[in-house]
Amino acid sequence: MVKRAATSEPESSHRQIKKVSRTHARNIINTQDDYKHLYLSVQPLDIFTWGSGPMCELGLGPLAKNKEVKRPRLNPFLPMDSVKIISFAVGGMHTIALDEESNVWSWGCNDVGALGRDTSGAKEQLKDMADAGSDSDDDDDGDLNELESTPTKIDRSMFPPLAEGHKIVQLGATDNLSCALFSNGEVYAWGTFRCNEGILGFYQDKIKIQRTPWRVPSFSKFNIVQMAPGKDHVLFLDEAGVVFAWGNGQQHQLGRKVMERFRLNTLDPRPFGLKHIKYIASGENHCFAVKKKDDSVVSWGLNQFGQCGISEQVEDGSLVTVPLAVQLPEGGKIKNISAGEHHSLVLLEDGTLYTFGRLDMFEVGIGKDHLPRYTYKDVHGKARSVPLPTKLTGVPAFKNIAAGSHHSLAIATNGIVYSWGFGETYAVGLGPAGEDVETPTRIKNTATQDHNIILVGCGGQFSVSGGVPLSETAAEKRADEMDDD
């Protein structure tokens, strides 16, 4: 498993995003005729973050008070009129962002080099324990690492293609790695992959942890045109429609069986037989691909809660070892797929949203009174998952989606964000209650109420959004609508 001078009306939000066609990725042509999946905002975005950030995830600076933010808050280090962020990618505990000049900014946890820059010289000021009091929580005992908690540019010299006039067209982030795709098809990456036993490594048996951007050796004779990061793996799609996979494959995320004794030698992007694909997506440990021929979707990987959406059968520890058909209704054109640890979201071009997977923390956003007949129940009769794609009803049409480990966000066509799922870490952005949210619920707060939100991203326990300020007229109209609710 990705923005003040200009204003925008919510109803024209489709013009806010440059959609880069896969078939024209070499020239970065903005076309409405071909399949589209790469999102770069045409206008600079205000960036908002919220949730729990004890590992500097929120990027709001080093003060201890910034470790927990219960509603979306404007990031003061990324002003729209000067930094001009147009895209971002959210990992498990870090975020990377892209500005108009193809500079990459990063913040969050840097334990294994995911930020692509040195943060070892930061000052950390611990609270005096005598002043902290016996009731102080361990997470509140001092300020954050100033270099990790503050959004900072990665040195441009780390990306030679920029000097040649090429631009970054997509960013990606896993739990422990970051990557950037350039308009010439080159991929740069940094960080590492983890597995069940700890750190797996970065590239074959040659690099264990890569702390600065590194050009991934060419692995296809065609240009790479899309990336899809998961928890500890990354999928790649080339312009011929072939899918490649790199990273940890213990849950068959790589689409192939990796022998234990060879897993370091094969730690590089490799094909696994999936061809004629036009779009790819990853959850934490499961994956999706859309076929060119008929827009049908296949999935593979971990499926113990039915997050692959292939059948009504649910089995603990279940793995889908080869790509199988996702049971979606025929005729719907896929716009976007996003997935978390045990749940998945599929957004159609008409704004319809299908969800499937785990129910325990309301990940799928379906109310208890509206569960379908195929809902899986455990031996005690408790509903645990919805294993087939199920249409959300009673919600607005959506234009973009994002899934975190156990929560989700969806942007309505009017630019308002809805959230649902696990609430204890405040990643749903709905305030101090910290309760799980059963169905999609509108985020209402002063920071974002006058913005047309364009992009959203979800981490393990935090969220990020980017939006453009509404015109005065549009802001007044929205305020009237909120008063009527």
Distance between the termini: 35 Å
CATH topology tier name:
Methylamine Dehydrogenase, Chain H
Fourth CATH level, the homologous superfamily: Regulator of chromosome condensation 1/beta-lactamase-inhibitor protein II
Q: Could you say how many structural domains there are in total?
A: 1
What's the helical proportion of residues?
A: under 10%
Described by strand count, sense and barrel closure, the largest sheet is:
5 strands, antiparallel
In what order do the strands lie side by side in the largest sheet? 23-24-25-27-26
Task: Please state roughly what percent of the residues sit in beta strands, choosing from under 5%, 5-15%, 15-25%, 25-35%, 35-45% or over 45%.
Answer: 35-45%
Mean of pLDDT:
89
User: Radius of gyration, rounded?
Assistant: 21 Å
H/I helix tally: 4
Look at the structure and give the CATH class: Mainly Beta
- Give the total of beta strands: 33
CATH architecture, by name, is: 7 Propeller
Secondary-structure class: mainly beta
What ranges have pLDDT less than 50 throughout 5 or more consecutive residues? Answer: 1-15, 19-37, 126-139
Task: Assign an overall shape.
Answer: globular
Domain RCC1-like: 47-464
InterPro entries: Ran_GTPase-activating (IPR051553), RCC1-like_dom (IPR058923), RCC1/BLIP-II (IPR009091), Reg_chr_condens (IPR000408)
Biased composition (Acidic residues): 134-146
Keywords: Guanine-nucleotide releasing factor, Repeat
